[in-house]
Write a structure and sequence with these properties.
Distance between the termini: 207 Å
Largest sheet: none
Number of strands: 0
Strand content: under 5%
Helix content: over 70%
Structural class: mainly alpha
Number of helices: 9
Length: 285
């Protein structure tokens, strides 16, 4: 019995020892495997870190300067042409015709009046010298060779000198009125165009407003897009007529002032001319 018990105990110790050894070996194997896995992971990380190429330096993108396209503003003539077309050729053309005709007459009058200006002091001095030295016929030659209404009035006065000073004065007054009418020639047409251009502009305004109300009636709604076209035409024609009226009014006032200046000069020089003839008659006697 003791031997059997001792054999069983020995067998148990051997079995437990083998179990402990196997467990130890298995634990050691597991730890080794874990370490191997860890080391392989580290190695892979190292290899990845080594094998992974360094990121290539990306060249900076070229800076493209954005060039802003600046739209050229239309010139003054282009703007005027555009507004003329938008305003409608019927009334805008009529207003433009008033401007052209009015300016042509005004410019012609300005040239004529400037040519009619005479140096009266020099003319009177030449007349006095001619009358004193050579007589009436020489004085007539002086006045005939001088341009302007004042010289023409003096010529008419010298032609009536034989009839007396009173006839000379009447002749100067009568012919002065004729010359004044010639100076004022064409002013009535300039005045007509001054009145006509704004009237045509206002007529275009009325017609434009009628068109706007027709558009409202057709659309059945009041909206800016519906009435904008008619109102724009109305305003453009009005502005065009007023501009033409203002321009022609400036020329008209200049012409009137120029004529008034010439008339005043004619009156003053006529008085001096009559005094000169009176002195000549007294000297002649």
């Amino acid at each position: 019995m003791k031997r059997i018990f001792a054999f069983l105990m020995l067998l148990g110790f051997l079995t437990l020892g083998n179990s402990w050894t196997a467990a130890a070996q298995e634990e050691m194997t597991t730890e080794d495997a874990t370490e191997a896995v860890d080391s392989s992971a580290v190695a892979e990380e190292d290899s990845t870190a080594v094998e992974e190429p360094a990121p290539a330096e990306v060249a900076p993108a070229p800076v493209v300067e954005e060039v802003e396209m600046v739209e050229e503003e239309p010139g003054f003539h282009q703007q005027v042409k555009t507004k003329f077309i938008e305003g409608g050729w019927e009334f805008m053309g009529a207003v433009l015709l008033c401007l052209i005709l009015g300016l042509s007459i005004a410019i012609e009058r300005i040239i004529t009046l400037n040519l009619a200006t005479t140096n009266t002091d020099k003319l009177l001095a030449n007349l006095e010298k001619a009358l004193t030295e050579e007589g009436v016929e020489a004085a007539k030659e002086v006045t005939k060779n001088t341009k302007g209404p004042i010289a023409s009035i003096f010529t008419q006065g010298l032609m009536r000198l034989d009839e007396g000073i009173e006839m000379v004065e009447k002749s100067i007054i009568s012919y002065g009125s004729v010359e004044m009418g010639r100076l004022e020639k064409g002013l009535v047409w300039v005045s007509l165009f001054i009145s006509l251009a704004p009237m045509l502009g206002f007529m275009g305004t009325v017609i434009g407003m009628i068109g706007a109300f027709d558009a409202i009636q057709a659309a059945g709604d009041i909206s800016p897009t519906v009435v904008a076209g008619g109102i724009k035409v109305a305003l453009l024609t009005t502005v065009a007529g007023l501009i033409v009226g203002v321009i022609l009014q400036v020329f008209y006032n200049y012409l009137v002032s120029k004529i008034d200046s010439l008339v005043n000069t004619m009156e003053d020089s006529s008085i001096s001319f009559v005094d000169l003839l009176v002195h000549y008659n007294q000297t002649k006697k």
